[in-house]
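dude i think i finally got it to work??
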Amino acid sequence: MSDHKNTLIAGAGLVGSLLSIYLAKKGHQVQLFEKRPDARKTNVYAGRSINLALSNRGIRALEQAGIVDEVLKTAIPMYGREIHNADGSRTYQPYGKEGQAIYSVSRGGLNNTLLDLAEQYDNISMHFEHGCEGIDTDSRTVHFETPDGKEKNVQADLIFATDGAGSVIRRAMEAKNLVKSETKWIEHGYKELSIQADKDGGFRMEKNALHIWPRKDFMLIALPNPDGSFTLTLFLRNEGEVSFAALDTDEKVLEFFNREFTDAVPLMNDLLHDWHQNPTSPLGIVYTWPWVHNKTILLGDASHAIVPFYGQGMNSGFEDCYVFGEMLDEYSDWDELLDALQKSRKPDADAIAELAMRNFIEMRDLTGDPTFLLQKKIESRFATRHPDKWLPLYSRVTFSHERYHEALAKGKAQDELMKDVMAMPNIAEKWDSDEVEQKILSLLKTP
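look at this
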């Protein structure tokens, strides 16, 4: 696309700040607006970050923008899950092949890095503490409230709404029947907690793993930070017998943690402080269609927020940027480009939303289940011996660039096939036998 546009991006979070770099590299004049103060000068992310898992899709988008090396400097590779079972035992499950990893990154740290990189472009101007109040889509004018409380109207040739799951622009477009949107809240919320580094600044658990305490209906996870600490996130029902609502005294909180997460509690020096300091936040999935009206497009969480259980929210938002970047070189008409972008990304956005909910059930219910673990061992052995015939669903989503909706369809087909394998007599004794291998090969040949 050769014509350089006056472009407005509403929302300077992860997707908005990366998108600004994509556009600036192509010569566009970019105005980047953000309602919060500049995160590099304040600690706006405290207590709400959920450390993020950067994987192949996000890395490819950062590569295309020419900034991946800078981002990976502070990222910590996690080569597998370390499962902390209720009986105190631990199980390690590698994520992929030898050397494959997802990377623990701080949301705030990554956002600050992206803003620093965006600031190096003369054709990006940044405007913090500008709260979006609405949009006139006909004239492509966005209404902001400035830091001193005044109204500021900004007109643009192109508008990218990357203002998150609670997008003001999406709601304004919805109020005019320009888009239809639905947010499905799940019954669980989350609260961020922490494990501090030891007195020498070292890690008190395995550094290169994502730690999970699966407890059927709820779970605790931990991701490592460069300073030796871990960011923990408790996922728990909002209401009910075992829920955030039920944990209404310090005594109940301590009793719950000592009962359910015995090995974690001695490492959590600030448990009650974190519990009271950090909010309990909701979890939901945003479905939207269409994403585009009159050269205004909703991207990232503004159009397809998901729950965090596949570690793909940021990665799918970054993949929006990557696909957009590819299309910039293919199309000469902006209306055609934005329409092609929404049509390409919508089925993948819906698929990763479904995959994320499926992975929640897997992480909290199944990672401690012997039958599930046996099935994964069989799949892993077969994939190692026949890499041309079998790629596990997790690897399709996390370590490949196969489209999400295609990965989901293939994953469902593999699950159906494995039902027959797991029903074989004495499967636990002969799981690594030629018989099981031949059975999978024969099922793969069956139409």
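The two ends are 44 Å apart (CA to CA).
im so relieved honestly
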